[in-house]
């Protein structure tokens, strides 16, 4: 059996292990410590725009705290991009609120600004104004932020930006993760940089970030004994993980460069196969970190044929994320759509995209895929 080629695996640099060792040597093994403070500073500096950052145990935890800070409660409605990973929507349910799903547009595969407005108008007509809008930058591609923000501003609904897949991407030169009133990042093992598991909540509003740190450490009031006047959570990032994160920040730009070069490599390698389509950045001001290289598969060979063929050679690929409105768990949730995300899910495939892929790995993916199309011709 050939060696496994993963979809997206962790890729450590030079400093991560040194930082973890330092955490051990200084006995900062707790969910606080100098690496946590340092990682928050590194992220805030990287993002710019006067952002404040709380390092947390996961991106999901960050999204949960974002909804709590915005006052989302049982019975409320929250609009969410349908084409996303389930973690974008689950925190809505944690709060006892109802997700209202909105379809994607063709250019970026992210939330359609038109359908967003249709959804808002209809929810208001039905008696409930949505409490928040969760917009996602899927696979690192920026959503149509100007148009999304214009709709959100018109109806005065706060935008929470799910930038879990999009650290290093930008829109009009501004880093993703700085557009929402609150934004979230993920450092899960498969993301562009990882802390093994972790996330962050980001905002210009320093008071909110302070509050999120308070809620994330069990909401302990200032008292010598354990005193609580709020429900708390155990969502803080450990100092060991933050040490990994600080090392990863040193190589983030290189990771973006390599992921983008994977994408260009595939695009050139498959230029002669008409049935395989790539989705370009729709304008000069969309800059994707190309976290995952994705393709749409048209014609007789299906994306499932490709996936199974590559799997036989121990190469991992994955269909595009299955939209939330098609998920059994969200079957009852309202949905505003025009079939775009369903078609993308039918045709779309994520190719191996790690920043640690060797040229030989990429060649193997291309050779296997070309072989399948050769055989299909005969
Ligand atoms: C990974 C991911 C999350 C969740 O992040 P975790 O750190 O794994 O909890 C949320 N949204 C999207 C779009 C993601 O890809």
How would you sum up this structure, described in words?
This protein has 378 residues and is an alpha/beta fold. The chain folds into two domains: 14-249, 3-Layer(aba) Sandwich (Aspartate Aminotransferase, domain 2), CATH 3.40.640; 253-377, Alpha-Beta Complex (Aspartate Aminotransferase, domain 1). The protein is 38% helix and 15% strand. It has helices at residues 16-25, 34-47, 59-69, 90-94, 113-125, 145-154, 206-216, 239-269, 303-312, 340-347, 359-377; strands spanning 52-56, 77-81, 98-102, 132-136, 159-162, 170-171, 174-175, 182-186, 199-203, 276-277, 286-287, 293-297, 318-319, 335-336, 348-351. Strands 1-9-8-5-4-2-3-14 form an eight-stranded mixed beta sheet, sandwiched between helices. Strand 6 and strand 7 (174-175) form a beta hairpin. The protein starts with 15 loop residues before the first helix and ends with a helix. The structure holds pyridoxal-5'-phosphate.
């Amino acid at each position: 059996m050939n060696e496994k080629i993963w979809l997206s695996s962790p890729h450590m640099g030079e400093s991560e292990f040194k930082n973890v060792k330092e955490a051990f040597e200084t006995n900062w093994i707790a969910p606080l410590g100098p690496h946590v403070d340092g990682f928050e500073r590194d992220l805030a500096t990287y993002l710019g725009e006067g952002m404040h950052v709380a390092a947390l145990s996961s991106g999901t935890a960050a999204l949960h705290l974002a909804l709590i800070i915005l006052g989302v409660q049982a019975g409320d409605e929250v609009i969410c991009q349908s084409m996303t990973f389930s973690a974008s929507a689950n925190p809505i349910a944690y709060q006892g609120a109802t997700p209202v799903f909105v379809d994607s547009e063709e250019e970026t595969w992210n939330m359609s600004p038109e359908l967003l407005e249709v959804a808002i108008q209809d929810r208001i007509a039905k008696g409930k104004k949505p409490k928040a809008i969760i917009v996602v930058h899927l696979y690192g591609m920026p959503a149509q932020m100007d148009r999304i923000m214009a709709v959100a501003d018109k109806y005065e609904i706060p935008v929470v930006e799910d930038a879990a897949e999009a650290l290093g991407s930008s829109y009009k030169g501004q880093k993703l993760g700085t557009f929402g009133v609150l934004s979230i990042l993920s450092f899960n093992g498969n993301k562009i940089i990882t802390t093994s598991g972790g996330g962050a909540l980001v905002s210009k509003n320093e008071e909110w970030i302070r509050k999120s740190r308070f809620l994330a450490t069990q909401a302990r009031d200032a008292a010598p004994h354990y005193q609580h006047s709020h429900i708390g959570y155990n969502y803080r990032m450990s100092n060991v993980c933050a040490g990994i994160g600080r090392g990863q920040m040193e190589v983030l730009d290189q990771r973006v460069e390599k992921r983008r070069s994977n994408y260009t490599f595939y695009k050139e390698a498959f230029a002669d196969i008409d049935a395989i389509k790539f989705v370009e950045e729709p304008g000069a001001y969309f800059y994707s970190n190309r976290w995952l290289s994705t393709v749409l598969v048209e014609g007789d060979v299906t994306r499932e044929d490709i996936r199974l063929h590559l799997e036989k050679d121990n190469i991992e690929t994955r269909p595009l994320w299955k939209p939330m409105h098609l998920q059994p768990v969200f079957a009852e949730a309202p949905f505003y759509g025009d079939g775009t995300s369903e078609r993308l899910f039918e045709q779309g495939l994520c190719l191996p995209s790690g920043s640690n892929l060797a040229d030989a790995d990429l060649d193997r993916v291309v050779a296997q895929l070309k072989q399948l199309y050769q055989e299909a011709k005969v």
